[in-house]
Amino acid sequence: MALHLFNQMLCEGVLPDNFTLIFILTACSHQAPPIEGRRIHVRIMSDVFKIDYLVMNALLNMYSKSRNLEDVRNIFINMFERNIVTWTVMVDALLQHGCREHALQFFGHMQMEGIFPDAVLFSKITTACSESETLFCGKQLHVSLKEMGCESDVFVRAALLNMYGNCGRLEDACEVFSQSFERNVVLWNSLISLHIQYGLDSDALHFFNCLLQESLLPDRVTYMHCLSGCANRADTFEGRKIHLLALNMGSHLDVMLGTSIVFMYGKCSYLEAAWQAFEQLHEHSTVSWNVVLGILAQHGECDKAFHTFGAMQKQGLIPDKGTFVHILSACLGSSALSEGEQFHSYIIEMGFESDVMVGIALMNLYNKCCSLNSALKMFEMMQEHNVMSWNTIVMAHVQCGKNREALQLFIKMLYNEVLPDSSTISITIDACVSESLIETASLLHMYAVECGFESDNVTGVSLLNMYGKLGSLEDACSVFKAFQTPDVLSWTALLTAYIFTGNSLEVLRLYHKMELKGLVAVKTTYVVVLDACADLLDLGTMEEILIRIMIKGLDLDATVATAIVSLYGKFGNLTAGRSIFNNVPERDVILWTAVITMYAQNGHGKEAACLFSEMQDYGLVPNSVTFINLLAACSHAGLVEEGHYFLASMIWEYGTSPLVEHYDCAIDLFGRAGLLDEAECLINRMPFSPRVVSFMALMAACRAQADLDRGARIARHLFCLDLENSVPYVIFSNIILNGRTDDI
């Protein structure tokens, strides 16, 4: 309307004055790009108009809003007169384009021209000093503010607080706040936001209560920060209080604040409340739909996520990149490759395929669905690669057991001048350990130290796992000591290192020490501690740990239940082990294997075989460990036919090639059953070099059957394999006692 009236004014021959031009240029600044504004610019630069620096400031502001930095610079250079507003607009434009150093240079030039900054400019220029490299400049600005008396301005103080916080100087930021006589909601918001940024959510919520005690009314930004803190802590109680407080104080629940409430309930796993909060929003934006999709994907509600995506489209909203990242995450959770491929086609239509985050989501999906080639093609199609995309493709290869290819990709990443982060180093160290490339892993450790990653918990955990598997406890402890603030995963990795080196007693001591530091054990921690209890046969600690696990409901988790079942198996308490197994709602192949092993180790071969049949009915594919324990169970129970069946099933039904351990179990099975010909035939035909264990099993059978000739043959093999082992001599001497042989 304003533009229409302005054009009509010109048509009627009425020349606008400078005030009119300022108003109309301000109206044009809301256009992107400012097409009408550019036309007016051309007109007013003619000799007809006598414009002043205020009009030029309006032009400068218009182009800065359109993010056209070149036009802003040209207008600034051609201005004969500049005031504080001119410089402020110019500095702001540079900051919006990420040109922090140039902004600081312009700030210096301004002062050289004799123009002193005001509070508005000071609050803007401090954002240029929000990195540790520019902290020195920030401190100089702070001194200048004190000298000019601008420090007391509450908006300047908020900017200073953010500057120190973003530079990693939280103490200095808090000091700025404590020295403020006037504290408005903006200043409180900055303080609360910084503490959430530092992961100090409890402190942030404490400051929120302090704000209320000072009789200040929180605004929507305050509520959004506090809801974020509650989400981080998964604190439904506090989150609910803040939600109700926002409603009671009459705070307008716009889309952004309402979406924050939805997000908070979702992070607290309160899905029903999250959905209710979503439905109560007056309008739904793409962002709010994305939050709901993310929550559903995170909690494994994949079908609901697909339905929600359809509902979003019915409302006429166009999905953005974030939408597809969440919906692909839902496909990932349910291994829904066909649905994922459909969304991939949609992504191509929308032109999002080259986006880094969408590409990473697609790579993760294809990798989860065992389609590494598709993941690699997706990676190669991406126009731009960042450290996250490289990490994803390297991790995909590691998860598929292609560790050497993963290391080659890591080298290629370095050649492409992409700097690795702590996650990259962690992934590549894991790949080295899997391939027993210890020297390469050690070099990566040195590189991590040079880059300052050693004290990072992510890299440190991988290093701890590496040295634990190598049995180098001293190196593991050295890595742990380098941590600035060890988290529960770091402690768990240290406990695991002690388990690997057989120090179960120290595991329990360190576990109690971890608890005294206020760290809460996670699933993997309990698994390690239960292993230690099993090694030590420590019933007292075991019962204490089991009570904690059951209070938290973790006994229903398949990983934890596996450890408990294994523990009960070692103690011979089959009833308790079976009870734990029966209560787990989602049983994986590892848990089934654990309960089969429990029965096998305690001499209940038939029960183990029955459980295998149940496992097949459950639709799970047994792994090599499952078959080892089944064959061992058949061996101890004398179930020859069942053993034959399991070995044949492994090869023909499941396409799994037997390992030397499977052959050893089968040899023992035939030997115990007196089928020595079959056992010896198996040794001669196995596609591996027989181990000492293989021959020992057959030799023990020869002793039981008083088969002197066969025993002599086997003894000859054993003496060649292991001269220092006295056991074969003892067994062979026992065979001789039962008879004589002429061929030794």
Automatic annotation (TrEMBL):
GO terms for MF: RNA binding
InterPro entries, per the entry: PPR_At4g14850-like_plant (IPR046960), PPR_rpt (IPR002885), TPR-like_helical_dom_sf (IPR011990)
- Entry's Pfam families? PPR, PPR_2
Write the record's keywords in alphabetical order, separated by commas: Repeat
Top-rank taxon: Eukaryota
Q: Does the keyword Ribosomal protein apply?
A: no
The GO biological-process annotations, alphabetized, read as:
RNA modification; system development
PROSITE patterns attached here?
PPR
- Alphabetical list of NCBIfam families matching this protein: PPR
Q: What is this protein called?
A: Pentatricopeptide repeat-containing protein
